[in-house]
Amino acid sequence: MTTRRQGGVNQSGLRDHNERLILSILQRHKTVAAAELARRTGLSKPTVSTILRYLQEDGLVRRGEPVRGKVGKPSIPIELDPDGAFSIGLKIGRRSADLLLLDFTGTVREQLHTTYDYPIPDAVFGFLQEGMDGLLEGLPSELHGRVCGVGIGTPFELWKWHDLTGLAAERFRSWKDVDFAAEVARFSDLPVYVVNDATAACHAEHLYGRGRDFRDFAYFYIGSFVGGGIVLNGTVFEGNRGNAGALGSMRTTGPLGESQQLIDTASLHLLEARLIEAGLDPDLMWGNLQDWSGIARYVDPWIGETAQELAKASLSICSVIDFEAILVDGAFPSDVRNELVQRVQRYLVNQDKRGLIEPCVEAGTVGENARAVGAASGPIFAQYFLNTNAGLSSI
Fold this sequence. Notes:
Elements (H helix, E strand, L loop, with lengths): L14 H15 L1 E3 H8 L3 H13 L3 E3 L13 E4 L5 E7 L3 E8 L4 E8 L5 H17 L9 E8 L11 H8 L6 H6 L6 E5 H12 L8 E6 L3 E7 L2 E2 L14 E3 L5 E3 L6 H10 L5 H4 L9 H23 L6 E6 L3 H16 L10 E4 L6 H15 L11
Parallel strand pairs: 4-7, 7-8, 9-14, 14-15
Antiparallel strand pairs: 1-3, 2-3, 4-5, 5-6, 9-10, 10-11, 12-13
Helix pairs in contact: 1-3, 2-3, 7-12, 10-11
């Protein structure tokens, strides 16, 4: 991959920007020597040295062992300190919720999981409150002050995705009026960051997965319903109202030519319906996201149909922006993901690509935990890393 120089600012008073720039480079490349940081940022070596000293004093970076064997002084690698910052991430799903503690390098320190028939607000926030207490109990007391926020990943317009009736339906529709920050403020003073769950998954892939290798890409995450996100200029672009990359709402056609959305033709709820129709328990898929060999006869046709839809959608996306890559991930075993990606690549060969540059389609690497990890990354990214798309949504 070609190394791109990122522009720094040497003027006084703008150290926050330069700190974020350096922290972002370290996050992306893991370990970088001070001289290389100066080259990548365009900042002077004394400026970089001063910033690194401040960052080390703040506990955000640490120096590795000197690398010897070359002419001149030994090179000292710089890296993020895992204990530099922490955040809480909550993924609200249609069947389950996940809560985790993420450290500064993207490592999940501890995780909790709960299941339900439908996510009712009282139960979800109760799980969050109790779970946060448990997660923080396992963190040394001297690090509690380094927890920088709570990130919540939730489906867009969650209150519309149900088939309940009566009182249960009324309780579920109460999600429409939920103020997430106010709910969390009842038991925590940490700042709250709310993001679409598929966009959260895109954040995780961009920061910690295959997305590190691309400056621009579109991303599909296939859960109960397919969703997605887009990365532009090295940062996830959330859009004017936080709904950019709503790839599940892309138009497609059904078997009779009727107008449908991608969520109707490329989602895991379709596989679930196949299992139910065959008299099988859907827990065969949801309860074991590492091995679907026992339901392979149902999974294989689902992969074929989904791959065709993703191939068409990928070309539609690239007719707007010629992304470097299309990444595909989801809540399924890695072998299913890899087969799905290979099928998409094969289907693209015979698609009408006039006027288009055929996209590179590859597998994501974060997997089923992407939504919770991405939600947790929100507070850390907002407070410590550089958003190269800052301001674009409001221009």
